[in-house]
Amino acid sequence: MSLERFINQAVSSWMSNEGPHSEIVLSSRIRLARNLADYKFPSLLQPEKAAELTAKINESMQEKYDLELLTMEKLSTLQKRVLVEKHLISPYLSDASSYGAVLLSDTEDISIMINEEDHIRIQCLSPGLQLKETLKKASEIDDVIEAKLKYAFDEQRGYLTSCPTNVGTGLRASVMIHLPGLVLTQQMNRIIPAINQLGFVVRGIYGEGSEALGNIFQISNQLTLGKSEEDIVEDLLSIVHQIINHEESARESLSNMSSIHLEDKVFRSYGVLTNSRIIESKEAAQCLSDVRLGIDMGYIQNVSRCILNELMILTQPGFLQQYAGGTLRPEERDIRRAALIRERLKLEENC
C-alpha cells in the first residue's frame, strides 16, 4: 500500500482538519459515561447480558446514525492497539473488557464504547477548540439513546457510574494542546499546579499515566458532580483561553529574545526528521513538536501544521506495524518510523 493511500485510510478527520485556535489546540473531546438501569455494571455482567446490552445500544443508534459495530473479541491485538492510538477506544476497553465493543462513525468523530468501565461511553472529537459544538453533538447522541433505553439515574446524585469520580454529569471534557513555548520558557511546572487547584487535570497525550510527548498535553475536568455540563465546559474554555494567551506570549518572548537560536532549533529538528534512518518515538515526538512550532512561527513555509497531528499518530507502534503488514521488533519500528516520516515530509513538499 502506498503511503498516501495508507494516510487517507488511517487519518481521522480531527487529525487532518483545522479548527479554531488550531495553531495551539489540536483537538477537543467530550465523553459522557452512562449505564442502563436494568443491568449490572460491566464488571459483574454475564456474557449473555453483555451481548444483549450491546445489541440494544446498537439498535438504538442505527435509526439516526450510520455507525459500524466492532466487537473487541473479533479484533486482533494490533487492530485494538491502532484504535487506542487513534484515541477511538480506551486502553481499558482494549485490554480489560471481555465483552467490549465500539460503534464508530465513518469520519471517526463519533465513538461509542460499550461495556467498558461503564455500559456506555459516548465520545465525540473535533479539530481545534470546539468544546461547545462537540458537547452539543455528544448530547444529541445521548438523547437518542435515552429515548430508547432507561439510564441509571438518581435525582440527587445524577448519572450513576462504576467509578465515583464520574457520578453526576458523567462528563469528561478535554482538549489536546501543543505548548512548546511554555515548556521552553520553563513555565509548565508553575502552570500545572494552578490548573489542578481549579479542579482540572493535566495529563499526557494518551490520558492518565501517559507522558506528555512532543509538548502535547491533555487538559480535562476532574469534577463531574455539582456542576452542569455547560458550566464544566465554560470553565474549561476559560482556562484554555488563558493558556493559549500564555503560550502565545511565550512564543513571542522566545522570538524576541533568541529568534536565531529558535530558528536553528527548528531546522535542526527538521533536518533530523528528513534525513534520519533510525529514530526512537521520544526523539521523533520532540522533533515533530519543534517543526510544528517552526510552521506556526512562519520559519517553515512548505509544510502543513496538520502534519504533527498525523505523524504523532502514524509513528506509534501499532500504526507502524499495520503499515509494515506484520509484527516488528523495537529497532525495526525505529527504522520504519524514520522511513515513514521521511516519506510523509517528502509527500508534503511535493504537494
From TrEMBL:
SUPFAM superfamilies noted in UniProt: Glutamine synthetase/guanido kinase
Catalytic activity field: L-arginyl-[protein] + ATP = N(omega)-phospho-L-arginyl-[protein] + ADP + H(+)
Gene Ontology CC terms: extracellular space
Domain (Phosphagen kinase C-terminal) ranges: 24-250
Family matches, as PROSITE patterns: PHOSPHAGEN_KINASE, PHOSPHAGEN_KINASE_C
A Pfam family it matches: ATP-gua_Ptrans
Example of a GO MF term: ATP binding
Listed InterPro entries: Arg_Kinase (IPR023660), ATP-guanido_PTrfase (IPR000749), ATP-guanido_PTrfase_AS (IPR022415), ATP-guanido_PTrfase_cat (IPR022414), Gln_synth/guanido_kin_cat_dom (IPR014746)
Keywords: Allosteric enzyme, ATP-binding, Kinase, Nucleotide-binding, Transferase
Regulation of protein activity: Appears to be allosterically activated by the binding of pArg-containing polypeptides to the pArg-binding pocket localized in the C-terminal domain of McsB.
GO biological process terms on file: phosphocreatine biosynthetic process
Signal peptide per UniProt: none
Motif interval(s): RDXXRA motif of the pArg binding pocket involved in allosteric regulation: 333-338
Residues that, per the record, bind ATP: 27-31, 87, 121, 172-176, 203-208
Function: Catalyzes the specific phosphorylation of arginine residues in a large number of proteins. Is part of the bacterial stress response system. Protein arginine phosphorylation has a physiologically important role and is involved in the regulation of many critical cellular processes, such as protein homeostasis, motility, competence, and stringent and stress responses, by regulating gene expression and protein activity.
NCBIfam families: PRK01059.1-4, PRK01059.1-5
Protein name: Protein-arginine kinase
Native species: Bacillus thermotolerans
Organism lineage string: Bacteria, Bacillati, Bacillota, Bacilli, Bacillales
